[in-house]
Specification:
The protein is an alpha+beta fold. It is built from four helices and seven strands; from the N terminus they run E-H-H-E-H-E-E-E-E-E-H. InterPro entries: DUF4275 (IPR025454).
């Protein structure tokens, strides 16, 4: 993950916690979808509403966040970054989402056939507003710092 600016590397236990949190939002209705193998099966088995393919990539490109979690499908690796990872493969299958899970992007090894998938939390509007506010405040601080108004 050299091209990704990593703010924090999570332990394997923390990665599993992120996977559990992700599944509590996006995988609640997983009946019939083999989420043990691939968590993104909740999307390919149509158990959670999502966009796929080009539409998913377009929606993903419009997202922003101060911090984003990148989680491997094996639920053993996760990092925190301050940049939106592109679609290049970091791991065979991985998920990108802000810590409040307002949205998620599932990038799959089946890209073009199954996936990628983009989905929004049921409470997306409120959660995304919180993310936008954090980003706005960060930009305001950067502007103030660059203008010499603060340290």
């Amino acid at each position: 993950m050299d091209a990704l600016h990593v703010l924090q590397t999570y332990t394997e236990a923390e990665a599993r916690e992120w996977a559990d949190a992700w599944l509590s939002v996006f995988g609640r209705n997983h009946q019939g979808a083999n989420i043990k193998r691939y968590m993104w099966h909740v999307f390919s088995f149509e158990r959670f509403p999502c966009l796929s393919g080009v539409q998913a990539m377009e929606a993903y490109a419009r997202q922003s966040g101060v911090e984003l979690v990148v989680l491997s499908n094996d639920r053993k690796r996760a990092v925190l970054t301050d940049s939106l990872p592109d679609a290049q493969a970091y791991w065979s299958d991985y998920y990108v989402f802000p810590p409040n899970l307002a949205w998620t992007m599932a990038l799959t090894h089946e890209d073009g056939w199954l996936g990628p998938y983009f989905a929004r939390h049921p409470d997306y509007v409120r959660l995304n507003e919180a993310n936008e506010l954090k980003l706005r405040k960060l930009r305001e601080r950067e502007t103030a710092r660059n203008s010499g108004w603060c340290d």
